[in-house]
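Hey,
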Amino acid sequence: MEKCGHLKITSCLLNAENPLRAGNSSIGRLVAASGRRRLWEERSGAAVDTVVIHYTSAVAVAPEAPFRKERILKIFCDYGVSSHYLIGRKGGIGRLAPEEMKAWHAGGSIMPEPDNRRAVNDFSIGIELMATATSGFTPSQYSSLSQLCRSIERRHGRRFLYVGHDQIAGERAVALGLRGEPKTDPGLLFDWKRFFADIEEARRTSA
């Protein structure tokens, strides 16, 4: 457990040195089996100024227990993808990749107009919320998300842009030939109005 200001963040780094269990193996062994040492890479040098909000679950492989952390982490390892943070249903925060590194969470992507920057992984931090298309999000998740985002802003010394995965990797990205299938998360059940109100409150109380 590490502390980031008043936030408590558990280390769950997706690298070959991690002994934590993920299914019948460990994260480390699963990452090593992919031929990699870690599921992230060096950034290109672009300034980091964006947070991409996602949801994730294990519902496709374990519908009876879609929010089992070890199963979700195994999916990341199996598919060779990553994000910087994972927020559980009770608000617990796990760090999956260092912020200063480029995680593989956005894929083929383009920022909304008029920004239009492509390859959003290069300048973004990815945050995954444990949820499904129909579960919605818990009050604890909204609270942890806003606090984490404000912590990110303070450490980077700037206000960030906030977008959903569906806003940067949806039908527009498909039409531009950036990806084959559109992403739909965090979806219609994510309350953007609540999130932005929470962010503003976090900014006021931590100024």
